[in-house]
């Protein structure tokens, strides 16, 4: 009798631990059935490239997730509103794009909460997700993000568009690696993104032809 109770208790504890792990390490949005792909843009908003990205997304009726940098939002607040009102999700990519592993606890908190305030002022919601710059995470980053109620949002397909390998290379790298549930990392800010803009139309057209639909992180 007592052993049976202990076993049930142990099973409950294991289930609870697994549930916590699932939440804590959630690198991708909730799995959706079928051929879904998540298109994401980092480091914006950019006065030059974000409007061009929005135009292409609109042409294909695709919604994406924009992981924006707080100081960029402060510099271009109307662009973040424009991204949000076009139906896209805006999420947190820190205030000034540091490697989060190198920060004190208070610096980490500032990077996240100051950016959240900017996003909330333009969208009315509190972000669910934090994308760590450079994908740089460790146990401390995970714990601090969780303490602030953030899920870490990484990616599964990285065409390294920021290195400007040419629009054809960006397109090929994405299209040859996308699988159902993939999270594609692209950039609308942080530098010259003309190659990303040039590649985007072909990427969306081909993914649609392959039967993919597009989803975003929760707004
Ligand atoms: Zn970034």
UniProtKB/TrEMBL annotation:
Keywords: Signal. It comes from the Bacteria. It holds the Pfam family Polysacc_deac_1. PROSITE patterns: NODB. SUPFAM superfamilies: Glycoside hydrolase/deacetylase. InterPro entries: Glyco_hydro/deAcase_b/a-brl (IPR011330), NODB_dom (IPR002509), Polysacc_deacetylase_ArnD (IPR050248). Gene3D superfamilies: Glycoside hydrolase/deacetylase. Residues 1-32 form the signal peptide. Residues 35-215 form the NodB homology domain. This is NodB homology domain-containing protein.
């Amino acid at each position: 009798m007592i052993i049976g109770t202990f076993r049930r208790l142990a099973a409950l504890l294991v289930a609870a631990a697994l549930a916590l792990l699932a939440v804590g390490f959630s690198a991708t949005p909730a799995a959706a059935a079928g051929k879904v792909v998540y298109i994401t843009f980092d480091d914006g908003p950019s006065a030059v490239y974000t409007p061009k990205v929005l135009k292409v997304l609109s042409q294909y009726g695709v919604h994406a997730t924009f992981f924006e940098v707080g100081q960029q939002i402060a510099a271009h607040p109307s662009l973040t509103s424009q991204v949000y009102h076009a139906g896209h999700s805006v999420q947190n990519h820190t205030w000034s794009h540091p490697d989060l592993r190198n920060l004190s606890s208070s610096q980490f908190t500032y990077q996240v909460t100051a950016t959240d305030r900017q996003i909330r002022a333009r969208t009315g919601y509190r972000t669910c997700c934090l994308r760590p710059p450079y994908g740089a995470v460790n146990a401390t980053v995970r714990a601090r993000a969780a303490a602030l109620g953030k899920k870490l949002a990484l990616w599964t397909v990285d065409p390294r568009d920021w290195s400007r390998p040419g629009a054809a290379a960006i397109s090929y790298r994405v299209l040859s690696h996308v699988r159902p549930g993939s999270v594609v990392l692209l950039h609308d800010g942080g530098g010259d993104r003309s190659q990303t803009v040039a590649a985007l139309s072909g990427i969306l057209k081909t993914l649609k032809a392959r039967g993919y639909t597009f989803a975003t992180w929760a707004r």
